[in-house]
């Protein structure tokens, strides 16, 4: 029996709908992580315990030893019920920012016609990572003349005109690996593939930049290992105001790292 194969291949026209779905999924994953961290934040836990105790007092649900072992469980419904509005409140505060950001990303011109957009520069590329012919990740590096632009396209009327050429600064626009495959560090191979392609295909590219978030620790880890350094702090997002940043890797640092390996 043949073992399942893993491969990195370019996104084709037939893959565009699935690719957009994975891009949206990868960005909305941040919302789930932000919510989970907000639930277990010390202030949130303190509010939950305080409100639950008030509810227990109001309902007179304090433990009743005279009812035996089950009497000690009488406060449990209060604690469970008070967790629901707190979880809803955290999601309500977080959701708007993450949905807005995801919507902006999905409306950028690189996702209108993926093969056409990423064919404008030899250093650009959008790849799917497949395991047993099933997509489990993706990465996109944009080295076109629009590589540093984050403009969105709200409505497409007719054909978008793309300029050909290569920028000195490339941008990793999308980077995602499904959770169950991250322990194998397969994201490192995906990142190395994108970096090598961008810097070896066109010597005009002198630097690669990428947005980083503390909510996606598996990406932060592999970026640091590849030599990406913090270039600037960008905005904050979410109820706990997580600091976003831009990391970059220049050609000199990449060459030095390659020689060491």
TrEMBL record:
**This protein's record includes keyword Membrane:** yes
Q: Does the keyword Transmembrane helix apply?
A: yes
Cited InterPro entries: Acyl_CoA_acyltransferase (IPR016181), NAT_camello-type (IPR050769)
Molecular function (GO) terms listed? N-acetyltransferase activity
- Return the SUPFAM superfamilies for the record: Acyl-CoA N-acyltransferases (Nat) (SSF55729)
Bilayer-crossing regions:
38-58, 70-93
Q: Which UniProt keywords apply?
A: Membrane, Transferase, Transmembrane, Transmembrane helix
**PANTHER family the record matches:** GNAT FAMILY N-ACETYLTRANSFERASE, LD18367P
What this protein is called in its record is N-acetyltransferase domain-containing protein
